[in-house]
Amino acid sequence: TEKKEVKYGTLTPKHRTDPAMEKFRDYGLGQFIHWGLYAIPGNEWEGVSARKGAAASEWIRTWSGETAPKGWKKTYDNLYKKFDPKDFDANAWAKQAKDMGAKYMIFTTKQHDGFALWPTKYSDYNITKSPYKKDIVKEVVDAYTAQGIDVYLYFSVLEWNNPDYLTKEPQTEEEKKKYNKFLQYTKNQLMELLDLYPEIKGFWFDGTWDQSWVKAYDFTYNLEKELRAKHPGLIIGSRFRNDEFGKRHFDSNGEILGDYEQGWERKLPQEYEWLDGNDWDAVMTIPPNGWGYMKDWSGLYTKTTDDLLDMLMQTVSMNGNFVLNFGPDGNGLMHPEEDIIAKELGDWMKVNAEAVYGVRHVDLPKTKLGYYTQKDKNLGLYHIYISVNIRSNQFLRVCG
Ligand code: JFZ
Asked: What is the distance in A from the centroid of ligand 1 to the CA of 377?
């Protein structure tokens, strides 16, 4: 097939071989943390659940209809005045993640509500205006880095309450002016994050689906270049930008945009071939949906440790990283069920880590017993592990 002329296509090779990317490839297991103002309501308000089926708890600001409290959006936007997590201990989080076996973590610097957990110069809607005041992003980056866990920053481009934000492509001169201001603000914040936290390994972008951003391909193309120039080795997923034809994740020639495929969210590929040799991560919630703290898990199917181990092994057997989400509450404590799962995963990882870290896909027919992974193929030490998705069992080692 003929190659299409794409000016704003991919900027990086399909398979980066620099040390930063090789390290990414070996992580196996990661932790996601969604924390922000939504942690205070925990998907309910004054005894009324906003669940509406299984709507995502971090989207509670969009609560509408008969059950929504009066003036809800205003109430939500003022929650920062109550953000004072008295039990927050970044070192305790990092220790737990380490014990669980996470090699990297992704932390929400700013979700769709626009509230920044770091003292950004570019918006007043940030942590310094809360009673807590201190730089939460710094606490997290420092604590995890000290545990040897690589940190990636989640960043939502879209902001629900920013007057300069538009969802549609700007049309009038006034709209263009406003949106350009927003783009500059986004760039400033990203550069600021790289200045403040030079230890970070990458960004996990989100909220990039609106037409305003899609049509800003010239800006986003150059921004990607600038971010990479400022921070050599930076890792960016495929959810950051699109080409001039509006193609997201993959450009119009099917080339991956960014360094790894970022579309595996609460779902896993069935076939290795679907991945087309690209790097990837899978991000997973324990409840069906909902990334931020959800006080009440009753009536929802929540994944068991065995479910998650099965998903972890399926992921690493296909060369992906499995990233498990945690949503701490408004005081900074994990959900009690998350604590249990972290411990159980960690216990399993202590025995079976060899089948998870630095492993690669094995070209063998699938087995119902579990998943194959291999290591050290290049050294002629060819090991195949069969993980069994029952916690009491360990993987079987087959040497060849
Ligand atoms: C986004 C957010 O809206 C959500 O709150 C959470 O942060 C999650 C990790 O990311 O949700 C998405 C984004 C993309 C898809 C699905 C949910 N998608 O591409 O299928």
From this structure: 36
What are φ and ψ of residue 156, in 5° steps?
-90, 125
- pLDDT at 368 (0 to 100): 75
Q: Considering only CA atoms, which residue is closest to atom 19 of ligand 1? A: 263
Return the amino acid letter for 108: T
DSSP per-residue string spanning 217-250:
HHHHHHHHHHHHHHSTT-EEBTTS-B-TT--BSB
Which residues, judged by CB distance below 6 Å to any ligand atom, belong to the binding site of ligand 1?
56, 58-59, 206, 263, 265, 283, 291
Q: How far is the CA of 286 from the centre of ligand 1 (A)?
A: 15
Please check whether residue 240 is in contact with residue 260, taking contact to mean a CB–CB distance below 8 angstroms. no
Q: What pLDDT, in 10s, does the model give residues 245-282?
A: 999 999 999 999 999 999 999 999 999 999 999 999 99
Question: For ligand 1, what atom is nearest to the CA of residue 56?
Answer: 5
- Name which residue sits closest to atom 10 of ligand 1, judged by CA: 206
**Cα end-to-end distance, the chain, whole Å:** 40
Task: Please report the atom of ligand 1 found closest to the CA of residue 154.
Answer: 7
Q: Rounded to an integer, what is the distance from CA 261 to the centroid of its chain? A: 12
Q: How many CB atoms lie within 10 A of CB 52?
A: 14
86: left (phi over 0), alpha (psi -120 to 50) or beta: alpha
Tokens coding 49:
């659940």
What residue has token string 């039990």?
87
State the burial class of residue 293 (Cβ atoms within 10 Å of its Cβ: 0-12, 13-18, 19+). buried
Q: How many CA atoms lie within 13 A of 131 on its CB side?
A: 11
Closest ligand 1 atom to Cα of 58: 5
Index of the ligand 1 atom closest to the CA of residue 292? 5
Q: What is the pLDDT of residues 16-49, one digit of tens each?
A: 999 999 999 999 999 999 999 999 999 999 999 9
